[in-house]
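Input (High-potential iron-sulfur protein):
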Amino acid sequence: MKQYNRKQFLLKSIVLSTTLSLVLGESVLLGKEKKKENPSFPLPEGTTPVAENDPTAQALGFHQNANDTDFTLFPDRKLPQSKNQICLHCAQFTKLNDGWGKCNILSAGVVSNQGWCSAWSKKS
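Output:
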């Protein structure tokens, strides 16, 4: 194994961290995540959104934003024909306003019209 002195080690460390920050962005080095977009539509009065950690929601792989779907658990969600599979186009969804609605399956609150779960079925 090649021996490095302190000066070489520091130089290589600086080069490595600079390269990583340029290639991957500061979020990886500083632990920052991309800011999630909040829906711009207000919640209907007296309602709360369905929590993604709700047991039923977790069992269905529910997310308020369909882009947050775990593609390892739901690989079909990656397919091009699945891009319109959002709550707004689901048979179980009843629209309340431009951003929110009720779901017949996830009845613990309201869901975003941009959400998704594995129980999605096309509106007829």
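Residues 46-119 form a domain with the High-Potential Iron-Sulfur Protein; Chain A fold (CATH 4.10.490.10).
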